[in-house]
């Protein structure tokens, strides 16, 4: 089995560390929402890796372990009730149009997991926004059932959707621990923060990017909140809801689709944080972080080029 894996997959130590950081979040998704979360994850990984193999086999290249990370991240952004066919179409689209059309691993401009998530969000809004599941509690939680009780958006939804509809905010403790309705891997602030610590400690993700996103978010959120904007929630509530922490830690730090320069990471991250608040407060979308990161991906190469041009100019001036 190990020999077959080595022949099929490109060994990537960085990606393996990301996978390790995601394991507790994956287990929590099963505990909170049921065994369906695990089966959905396996289904998406199978389709995603098969899609990449289909394209890479022509060049006799192995599948990148980054494809597994893409599949895991994408699945964790989905609601527990997402139909298998919708999830499958999304990951196939994300791998093809978010990665392979640019030349495969290391050449993609956009984060493939977010390309997949954005595609299903726009094309299949009903299963992606109208149906959620109540989180399980106690022992064995979701490990003893296929799927927890399903609710529709009219009776109970995610904390961010409830805020947009009624202005009510969920318990901060519930948001921190994760026992709230939401996407599979985005509910527990505690586990995401622990993953962030691990990724930073192992130098597997840029702390500058994470800090920059947080800085941009806090600046814009605090400014608009204290200016009295009714559509912008309390900064702490916004920080712990809507997938903000998950996007900050795992999506914005993608080494391929984010800037390479340190200065660029700060500009890029601050841009994402600011745009997230604007989208959340004044657009139709409750989350915002997904579209903000894709916008950041668009400008990442230009930001790096601008930083390099400025440094070259400064060298010439001081020469």
TrEMBL record:
<dbReference type="Pfam" id="PF03116">
    <property type="entry name" value="NQR2_RnfD_RnfE"/>
</dbReference>
<feature type="transmembrane region" description="Helical">
    <location>
        <begin position="84"/>
        <end position="102"/>
    </location>
</feature>
<keyword id="KW-1278">Translocase</keyword>
<keyword id="KW-0812">Transmembrane</keyword>
<feature type="transmembrane region" description="Helical">
    <location>
        <begin position="210"/>
        <end position="230"/>
    </location>
</feature>
<keyword id="KW-0285">Flavoprotein</keyword>
<feature type="transmembrane region" description="Helical">
    <location>
        <begin position="180"/>
        <end position="201"/>
    </location>
</feature>
<keyword id="KW-0597">Phosphoprotein</keyword>
<dbReference type="GO" id="GO:0005886">
    <property type="term" value="C:plasma membrane"/>
</dbReference>
<keyword id="KW-0288">FMN</keyword>
<keyword id="KW-0813">Transport</keyword>
<dbReference type="GO" id="GO:0022900">
    <property type="term" value="P:electron transport chain"/>
</dbReference>
<dbReference type="InterPro" id="IPR004338">
    <property type="entry name" value="NqrB/RnfD"/>
</dbReference>
<keyword id="KW-1133">Transmembrane helix</keyword>
<dbReference type="InterPro" id="IPR011303">
    <property type="entry name" value="RnfD_bac"/>
</dbReference>
<feature type="transmembrane region" description="Helical">
    <location>
        <begin position="114"/>
        <end position="133"/>
    </location>
</feature>
<feature type="transmembrane region" description="Helical">
    <location>
        <begin position="236"/>
        <end position="254"/>
    </location>
</feature>
<keyword id="KW-0472">Membrane</keyword>
<dbReference type="GO" id="GO:0055085">
    <property type="term" value="P:transmembrane transport"/>
</dbReference>
<keyword id="KW-0830">Ubiquinone</keyword>
<feature type="transmembrane region" description="Helical">
    <location>
        <begin position="266"/>
        <end position="295"/>
    </location>
</feature>
<feature type="transmembrane region" description="Helical">
    <location>
        <begin position="14"/>
        <end position="32"/>
    </location>
</feature>
<protein>
    <submittedName>
        <fullName>NADH:ubiquinone oxidoreductase, Na translocating, B subunit</fullName>
    </submittedName>
</protein>
């Amino acid at each position: 089995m190990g020999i077959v894996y080595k022949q099929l997959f490109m060994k990537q130590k960085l990606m393996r560390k990301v996978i390790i950081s995601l394991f507790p979040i994956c287990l929590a998704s099963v505990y909170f929402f049921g065994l369906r979360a695990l089966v959905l994850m396996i289904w998406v990984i199978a389709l995603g890796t098969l899609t990449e193999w289909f394209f890479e086999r022509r060049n006799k290249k192995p599948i990148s372990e980054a494809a597994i990370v893409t599949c895991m991240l994408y699945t964790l952004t989905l609601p527990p009730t997402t139909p298998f066919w919708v999830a499958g179409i999304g990951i196939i689209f994300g791998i093809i149009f978010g990665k392979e059309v640019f030349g495969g691993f290391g050449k993609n401009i956009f984060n493939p997991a977010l390309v997949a998530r954005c595609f299903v969000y726009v094309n299949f809004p009903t299963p992606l926004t109208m149906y959620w599941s109540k989180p399980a509690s106690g022992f064995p939680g979701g490990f003893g059932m296929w799927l927890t009780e399903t609710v529709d958006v009219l009776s109970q939804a995610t904390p961010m959707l409830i805020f947009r509809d009624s202005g009510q905010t969920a318990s901060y403790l519930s948001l921190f621990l994760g026992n709230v309705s939401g996407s599979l891997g985005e509910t527990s602030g505690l586990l995401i923060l622990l993953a962030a610590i691990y990724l930073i400690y192992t130098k597997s993700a840029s702390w500058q990017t994470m800090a920059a996103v947080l800085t941009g978010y806090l600046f814009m959120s605090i400014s608009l909140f204290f200016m009295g904007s009714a559509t912008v929630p309390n900064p702490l509530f916004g920080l712990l809801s809507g997938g903000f922490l998950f996007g900050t830690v795992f999506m914005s730090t993608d080494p391929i689709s984010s800037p390479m320069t340190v200065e660029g990471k700060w500009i890029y991250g601050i841009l994402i944080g600011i745009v997230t608040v604007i989208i959340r407060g004044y657009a139709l979308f409750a989350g915002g972080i997904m579209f903000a990161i894709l916008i950041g991906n668009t400008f990442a190469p230009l930001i790096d080029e601008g930083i390099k041009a400025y440094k070259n100019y400064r060298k010439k001036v001081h020469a």
